[in-house]
Specification:
By secondary structure, this protein is of the alpha/beta class. The chain has 2 domains: 3-188, Rossmann fold (3-Layer(aba) Sandwich); 193-282, Methionyl-tRNA Fmet Formyltransferase, Chain A, domain 2 (Roll), CATH 3.10.25.10. It has helices spanning 10-21, 48-55, 111-117, 153-172, 193-196, 204-213, 277-282, and strands spanning 3-7, 27-32, 36-38, 43-45, 60-62, 75-79, 95-99, 107-108, 122-129, 139-146, 187-188, 220-224, 227-237, 246-249, 252-256, 261-269, 275-276. The strands form 4 sheets. The protein has a 7-stranded mixed beta sheet. Strands 12, 13, 14, 15, 16 and 17 form a 6-stranded antiparallel beta sheet that branches. Strands 3-4 form a two-stranded antiparallel sheet. Strand 3 and strand 4 (43-45) form a beta hairpin.
């Protein structure tokens, strides 16, 4: 069978590599987004899936409107592509999507992040056949797994690939049949600037969930005495001195929340590298007094 792979992100790159190297899927073409500016310097960056395809020696097509020109194929694999697929591509051949959520919970662009933010203790890797309605197609495979208390988005994504890629390979080989989704859908909207901002009036556990949902790829944001920082690792504790109040104790950086406190374990001041809280505090003459 001729398989077309549609993907863009690092998650997609991981799926592509496993499909080819571990499951023996023959990919005729990889379709991805165009190169775009990214990062603080806004330098033009190649999508991770394109880099992976080139390493594998696969033909690459970068399309702004991929639906308009379906590549010749018998079936398609769609993984974190970043475009809504429409006719004529939708309907040209079966399209199977690897979606890291317990569908119909968390349809949409950011299922892993939204599940962790919501405090979900379970998610899944699901393979669906794409239809016109967003992430609403028949399920061809689904495997549940827990979200552990210390998992971040990267850990959950890796676990979803472990469980989901074999399911995707089976669907591409025609070894599966679909069943309709059951239950009330929820939607995982794209992560925006407001989602990254820490609100210290919220409960400590909720703040810690937000931090790990945005690590290691995006990061949660705050200010310490007016200094912008990105928070990469944090955990909830019981005692706190009120929202935003900073306590320094033997190299530990504790920030009060609406309930309890948050221990910031790893952070990144603007323009500097990531560092532990102890490194950050040792580099300052005076410990910060307040977080906003």
């Amino acid at each position: 069978m001729r398989i077309a792979f549609f993907g863009t992100s690092a998650f997609a790159a991981g799926a592509l590599e496993r499909l080819v190297r571990e499951d023996g899927i023959e990919v005729a073409a990889v379709v991805s987004q165009p190169d775009r500016p990214a990062g603080r310097g806004r330098r033009t960056a190649t999508p991770p899936a394109v880099s992976a395809a080139r390493d594998l020696g696969l033909p690459v097509v970068q399309e702004e409107r991929a639906s308009e020109r379906p590549p010749p194929a018998d079936a398609g694999a769609v993984v974190a592509f970043g475009q809504i697929l429409r006719p004529p591509l939708l309907g040209a051949y079966p399209l199977y999507n690897l979606h890291p959520s317990l569908l119909p919970r968390w349809r949409g662009a950011a299922p892993i992040e939204r599940a962790i933010m919501a405090g979900d203790r379970e998610t899944a890797a699901a393979v669906i056949e794409l239809v016109a309605e967003l992430d609403a197609g028949p399920i061809h495979g689904l495997e549940r797994f827990p979200i552990e208390p210390d998992d971040d988005a990267g850990t959950v994504a890796g676990r979803a690939l472990d469980r989901g890629v074999p399911l995707l390979a089976a669907a591409l080989r025609g070894e599966t049949s679909g069943r309709e989704q059951e239950g009330e859908p929820t939607y995982a909207h794209r992560i925006g600037p407001d989602d990254r901002r820490i609100d210290w009036d919220r409960p400590a556990a909720e703040i810690a969930d937000r931090v790990r949902a945005l690590a290691p790829h995006i990061g949660a944001r705050a200010e310490l005495d007016g200094l912008p920082v990105t928070v990469w690792r944090a955990s909830a504790t019981r005692a706190g001195d009120g929202p935003g109040a900073v306590t320094v104790d033997a190299g530990r950086l504790l920030i009060g929340a609406g309930g309890g406190a948050v221990e910031v374990r790893e952070l990144q001041p603007a323009g500097k590298r990531r560092m532990t809280a102890d490194e950050f505090l040792r580099g300052r003459g005076t410990p910060p007094a307040r977080a906003t």
